[in-house]
Sequence to fold (311 residues):
Amino acid sequence: MDVELNVTLLTLGGFAELHKYRYLYFVVIFILYILILCFNSTIVCLIWTHKNLHEPMYIFIAALLINSVLYSMTIYPKLLSDVLSEKQIILYPLCLFQGFLYYTSAGSEFLLLAAMAYDRYVSICKPLQYAVIMNRITIYVSLVLAWIIPAFETAVPVVLYSNVKLCSFTLTGIFCNNSGYKLQCVSSVAISIYGMVMLINIALLPMLFILFTYIRIVRISYQSCREVRKKAVKTCLPHLLVLINFSCFIVFDVVIVRLESDLSKTLRLILTFQSILFHPLLNPIIYGLKMNEIFKSLKILFCHVTVAGNI
Fold:
């Protein structure tokens, strides 16, 4: 703690041998950050500029990728700054704010995936009612709720954390996540209980809803013609891949915190990098390669770029 400035500073102690690999860390993280921004922004721009992609499914995909960009912007700029700094520190209020943005975007991901699952369910199981059910109001309300609900639920523990007394000032991670509860002098039962309720509300329940809708889709597709089964596989497979990828990211986040005392600093750092890298980088790759309309638009874009480069 810095007594002279009367502010609470936390040390981010999750880096392994930073003094030896400082510039390697920076180059790798910077390249990955640029790739994440470029990949996600390219597909969002394609969906925005191509009218044939102005459909609910693609609008939800664009929202999901925008959420990935916001998630990355929450972590990577501070990470790059820390790598080049002699001391990896952060103000406690800023740490709480980073954690708020981090878990808000994580919660939004689950709710957006749930909205996409419902969109696929209506499209495949109730095709004649699709235009009526998935209208503009439904889409806008789903998007707003997907961001507002996690924000409100995440704000509560942030307020609770802001009033607790800290006895430790060193985080074992490279950014602010739920490992902050280990800094408390006395573990708060209220925060722990609310954390479990929040996890159920914005992660477990949406996941169960997604699994339920896809089970229904599989059952109805199995009883339908070959074209319906083909459509179900083409449109649902990318969403399932993203769900599996994101679920692994959540498991990593929980495991890293709960088992941190049993893990070496290097292994913990590798697991952390996996959790913050694969999720925002793989999403645009999965949708770019697996969604036919997006893949066609990408091919046209690359052809135009190649032609322009040869002129």
Observations:
- The CA atoms of residues 33 and 77 lie 9 Å apart.
- The longest strand covers residues 9-12.
